DNA sequence: CATTGTTGTCATCTA
DNA sequence: AATAGATGACAACAA
């Protein structure tokens, strides 16, 4: 399967390229960034949501809220990502359905005069339907396991070639007279989610145990939709059928075939594309409103959007990977795949053929809780063109919108917006009153002009996102009145009230202290600048001790504030994961209880049958005096060696009266 | 007015 | 040793 995944992944990338060549716009960057990020989890230590041993404990719960920092999950993420990509790109996940359509036609070999047991005879049907129906056991017995791949695939190929000679695209309604149930079985088998995961290696399906196949068929048959509109392009069927007909061992050698196959396909597939859709757009529109997690209504769309900003922007500290993105993606496939619970959203409507639709479906599949961060980050990317003030207003709660550590030169506007959106700090920076610094004792001076020798230019690339730490540009002279309470009490004209109050809210306590000490840097800058730069700032600027202390405090508090917010978010995620785990375990417990009940019932029935059989056997036996053995006095015991022994029941009263002339134990053995 | 949730901060530990 | 990050605890605040 690994080779198959590799093949699919590479092939689908080329397929995407081909789509773009034929004019279909595919936003590969955003798409791949979102999906490949799990592989870049460990890129940097400075990204958010890392170093959380707390989460490593949760990584065992079937993937709930997998922490991206865990390196041991890389392999898992990689494999899941590959599977997710194959699914997300849609088309390959569809072709098994098309393959099944061709498979259906072949069993009508009576028209071709083929012997039913020939090598090219009913491949999967011989192996599968015979076991499922129990009527053609001979065929299935003849099918040795070691001839799995090549034999089955050769049969597939032969049948497909035969079917290609059929005139109609779906001759199942015509010449082919395969039993309908078999058709449904085949369709269902390949339409099922489990089968879709195993879609490439049909041999595994063919060689599965009879029980598994039965279950698979029954489950898959319900999924089969005979009325599904099939793609009208027969070429695609043929190509995919031919593609599938290759033995698994040849998949490694298929790489050179990919361009050719895809080039043959592109025309038809392009017609199948219904519209020109950016994958990123699809992700955003499809997820932002649908994926609101049921967390007691704590989160809203408005509140979540800046959160995505945080993760996306903070990632710039270390690498291109977005921690928030990785978090979401890490959790998602894990949850959906490992649990294997194909809920309602997992069952596709087999509309097959449309890549974009497949992508949308997959997005819906992936769009569970963990995907929020990813979606939000991408949503923010799309919203960057919107009025910054609007975006800032969206940040109603100061919550996790501290995209402070991001330092994107390309997004100064948005960052200023975020900084301007603060509405929480104005009342007071906080609860902890133990805080004290030298700056607190300083008298509030009028804020002088900033020292022009301090060039904030080199810090212009620093983060300006944290709403809690305003930029000097938003300073208000009256803010020098230190008590922040006084800020709210300042009279404003009606016209300027909103604006000035809005600006004053940006002055955090640290900001005010910094101004009081003539520190011409915003708290955001102080917090977000690299440590080397910060140390240089402390040492090379000739700062006073008070200024140095204040700068350190500001930086420490700012960092800790971010850490606290990340920590709280992780805690909430952990709680959510635990709740889901509890639900899952409860469901498992209920299932086990039902199984136990069923087993007890079966055991009781078996005991009754045993009792009847014992009575029957005993009634046919005679003791020394020729009387029939009664179950009241004798019982049958099954020995370990398979022998059945008649044993006399010893009862105190009976033994004392009847044991006189008899041997204690008379054994009559009979062979089973 | 009490309760609850949010947020900032401090102290402490760990890497 | 210094730094950053994580997290429990506390307090202030808002709803």
Automatic annotation (TrEMBL):
<feature type="compositionally biased region" description="Acidic residues">
    <location>
        <begin position="492"/>
        <end position="504"/>
    </location>
</feature>
<feature type="compositionally biased region" description="Acidic residues">
    <location>
        <begin position="133"/>
        <end position="143"/>
    </location>
</feature>
<dbReference type="InterPro" id="IPR004826">
    <property type="entry name" value="bZIP_Maf"/>
</dbReference>
<dbReference type="InterPro" id="IPR004827">
    <property type="entry name" value="bZIP"/>
</dbReference>
<feature type="domain" description="BZIP">
    <location>
        <begin position="550"/>
        <end position="595"/>
    </location>
</feature>
<dbReference type="GO" id="GO:0000978">
    <property type="term" value="F:RNA polymerase II cis-regulatory region sequence-specific DNA binding"/>
</dbReference>
<feature type="region of interest" description="Disordered">
    <location>
        <begin position="397"/>
        <end position="442"/>
    </location>
</feature>
<feature type="compositionally biased region" description="Polar residues">
    <location>
        <begin position="116"/>
        <end position="132"/>
    </location>
</feature>
<keyword id="KW-0539">Nucleus</keyword>
<dbReference type="InterPro" id="IPR008917">
    <property type="entry name" value="TF_DNA-bd_sf"/>
</dbReference>
<dbReference type="InterPro" id="IPR047167">
    <property type="entry name" value="NFE2-like"/>
</dbReference>
<feature type="region of interest" description="Disordered">
    <location>
        <begin position="488"/>
        <end position="507"/>
    </location>
</feature>
<keyword id="KW-0804">Transcription</keyword>
<feature type="region of interest" description="Disordered">
    <location>
        <begin position="110"/>
        <end position="143"/>
    </location>
</feature>
<protein>
    <submittedName>
        <fullName>Nfe2 like bZIP transcription factor 3</fullName>
    </submittedName>
</protein>
<feature type="region of interest" description="Disordered">
    <location>
        <begin position="650"/>
        <end position="672"/>
    </location>
</feature>
<keyword id="KW-0805">Transcription regulation</keyword>
<keyword id="KW-0010">Activator</keyword>
<keyword id="KW-0238">DNA-binding</keyword>
<keyword id="KW-0175">Coiled coil</keyword>
<feature type="coiled-coil region">
    <location>
        <begin position="568"/>
        <end position="602"/>
    </location>
</feature>
<dbReference type="Pfam" id="PF03131">
    <property type="entry name" value="bZIP_Maf"/>
</dbReference>
<feature type="compositionally biased region" description="Low complexity">
    <location>
        <begin position="397"/>
        <end position="424"/>
    </location>
</feature>
<dbReference type="GO" id="GO:0005634">
    <property type="term" value="C:nucleus"/>
</dbReference>
<comment type="similarity">
    <text>Belongs to the bZIP family. CNC subfamily.</text>
</comment>
<dbReference type="GO" id="GO:0000981">
    <property type="term" value="F:DNA-binding transcription factor activity, RNA polymerase II-specific"/>
</dbReference>
